[in-house]
């Protein structure tokens, strides 16, 4: 249900600018969405059906209606409407997402897969469709899911879902590097959700797994020069964590990594994540950033003590982070193994 609420929030926000232009605060869509947020799906459906009688070609009203049929578990009506939605020439990404949710609800796996394929044929650069299609494949233990998540990262680098699933996938493989990189990018794109805490723990354990290898290049199934460069810098820094992997030792490790990276590979592999880390380092917020990622996951009492002692420093970072938008540019995609 949490993911459904997230989807509904995204659906609402995507239309915010349109709603904001309306002079009628009690427009049918506004009223219906109010009912949806309250869990009163029946009244939302009544309002939307009435509105569609006056404006039968309104895509946004039709999407909201199909979504409310899904929430009210009236899947038969929902699927019927969803079929009509995706057949429209103006069907957008959300139309395919809603239709897929309904097909999943009635266990129509083949129809759902066809839907995702059709959607991606029409919108090949849609991060959400790549992410959800990959999730569907993964649910049936199809390891081709990673190709969808990777493609989503490549073509839509600011959609967080693909990083989330790819980071978890690589955590259980030999490709430890991508788990760490994708996991940290995810945290900067989606900083305050239940998934955030999950990935913070994954990153901490990922660094522990990385440094259990005497040779970091061993078993790394990669042809990426970028990854080899990362390993060449990270490997010799093992002395920084000889007493264990903690938020504090990782701060030292990652500080030295950034300094060495920009000395050794200053222009070879532009990467927004590393630029962002260097910015934090220059502005005196890198310690707080690393505590935010690893502190609570590693040792909650120690983290609480650190934030109490460094209250102003931590607050400054949190204010900075909440006030900025992290963006990954296109063209900074260096994964080649999954293609």
Any chance you could write out the topology, listing elements then pairs?
Blueprint: H1 2-14, H2 16-21, H3 28-38, H4 41-54, H5 59-71, H6 75-86, H7 93-105, H8 109-122, H9 127-139, H10 145-155, H11 160-171, H12 176-189, H13 194-210, H14 225-234, H15 247-264, H16 272-282, H17 286-298, H18 300-309, H19 311-322
What can be said about the biggest beta sheet?
none
Rg over C-alpha atoms, rounded to the nearest angstrom: 23 Å
Low-confidence stretches: 12-24
Series of H and E elements: HHHHHHHHHHHHHHHHHHH
Number of helices, counting only DSSP H or I runs of 4 residues or more:
19
- Determine the mean pLDDT: 91
Total beta-strand segments? 0
**β-sheet strand percentage:** under 5%
Helix content: 55-70%
Category from helices, strands and their pairing: mainly alpha
Question: Span between N and C termini?
Answer: 33 Å
Describe the structure using short key phrases:
19 helices
Could you characterize the architecture of this molecule?
This protein has helices at 2-14, 16-21, 28-38, 41-54, 59-71, 75-86, 93-105, 109-122, 127-139, 145-155, 160-171, 176-189, 194-210, 225-234, 247-264, 272-282, 286-298, 300-309, 311-322. 38% of the residues are buried. The longest helix has 18 residues, at 247-264. It is elongated. 70% of the residues lie in helices and 0% in strands. The protein is built from 19 helices and no strands. The protein is mainly α and 339 residues long.
């Amino acid at each position: 249900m949490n993911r459904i609420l997230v989807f509904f929030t995204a659906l609402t926000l995507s239309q915010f600018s349109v709603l904001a232009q309306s002079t009628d605060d009690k427009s049918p869509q506004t009223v219906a969405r109010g009912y949806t947020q309250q869990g009163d799906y029946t009244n939302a459906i009544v309002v939307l059906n009435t509105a569609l009688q006056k404006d039968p070609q309104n895509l946004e009203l039709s999407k909201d209606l199909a979504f409310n049929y899904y929430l009210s578990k009236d899947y038969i009506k929902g699927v019927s409407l969803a079929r009509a939605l995706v057949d429209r020439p103006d069907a957008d990404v959300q139309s395919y997402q809603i239709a897929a949710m309904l097909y999943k609800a009635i266990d129509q796996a083949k129809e759902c897969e066809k839907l995702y394929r059709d959607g991606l044929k029409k919108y090949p650069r849609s991060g959400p469709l790549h992410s959800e299609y990959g999730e569907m494949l993964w649910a049936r233990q199809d390891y081709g899911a990673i190709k969808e998540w990777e493609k989503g990262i490549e073509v839509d680098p600011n959609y967080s879902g693909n990083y989330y699933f790819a980071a978890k996938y690589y955590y259980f493989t030999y490709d430890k590097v991508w788990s760490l990189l994708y996991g940290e990018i995810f945290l900067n794109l989606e900083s305050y959700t239940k998934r955030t805490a999950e990935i913070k723990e994954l990153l901490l354990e990922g660094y522990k797994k990385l440094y259990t290898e005497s040779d970091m290049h061993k078993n790394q199934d990669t042809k990426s020069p970028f990854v080899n460069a990362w390993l060449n810098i990270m490997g010799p820094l093992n002395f920084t964590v000889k007493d264990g992997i903690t938020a504090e030792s990782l701060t030292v490790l990652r500080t030295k990594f950034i300094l060495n990276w920009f000395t050794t590979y200053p222009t070879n592999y532009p990467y927004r994540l590393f630029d962002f880390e260097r910015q934090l380092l220059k502005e005196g917020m890198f310690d707080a950033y690393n505590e935010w990622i690893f502190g609570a996951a590693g040792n909650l009492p120690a983290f609480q003590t650190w934030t109490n002692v460094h209250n102003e420093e931590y607050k400054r970072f949190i204010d900075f982070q909440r006030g900025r938008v992290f963006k990954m540019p296109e063209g900074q995609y260096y994964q080649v193994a999954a293609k």
